[in-house]
Amino acid sequence: QVQLVESGGGLVQAGGSLRLSCAATRSIFRLYDMGWYRQAPGKQRELVAAITLGGSTNYVDPVKGRFTISRDNAKNTVYLQMNSLIPEDTAAYYCNAHLEFPVPRDYWGQGTQVTVSS
Asked: Residue 33 in contact with residue 51, Cβ under 8 Å?
């Protein structure tokens, strides 16, 4: 059974830091690219950061220089280190596992809430 279990969300003041973790089923983690998405109230879910099996990363412009995505292959875990948080980062954050070939497939975690107070 595929599982993505997030942790690490919470309430933080602007300028603070949080680290999100996503523990994945090993069968998924060793084959899939991993990513973090977020969804604020009334907005569409958007990609925040992604990391490939090979370790290549990409970030959405608003978080560049503040967020860092990484993966620990020994622990089947992907992290999102979030620094210099701003109120606009407030959202539910979702872990994603994505496979492009041979058939596109996505798995999602249950989400973890991040709230940044001003």
From this structure: yes
Q: Is 114 exposed, middle or buried (0-12, 13-18, 19+ CB in 10 A)?
A: buried
**By the 8 A CB rule, do 82 and 19 touch?**
yes
Q: What separation in angstroms does the CA of 101 have from each of 33, 50, 110?
A: 11, 17, 24
CA 113 vs. chain centroid, Å, equals: 12
Alpha helices in the chain (DSSP H): 26-29
Nearest Cα residue to 37 out of 111, 115, 106: 111
Number of H helices, E strands in the chain: 1, 11
Mean pLDDT by 10 residues, the chain (118 residues): 92 98 92 96 96 96 98 95 98 96 92 97
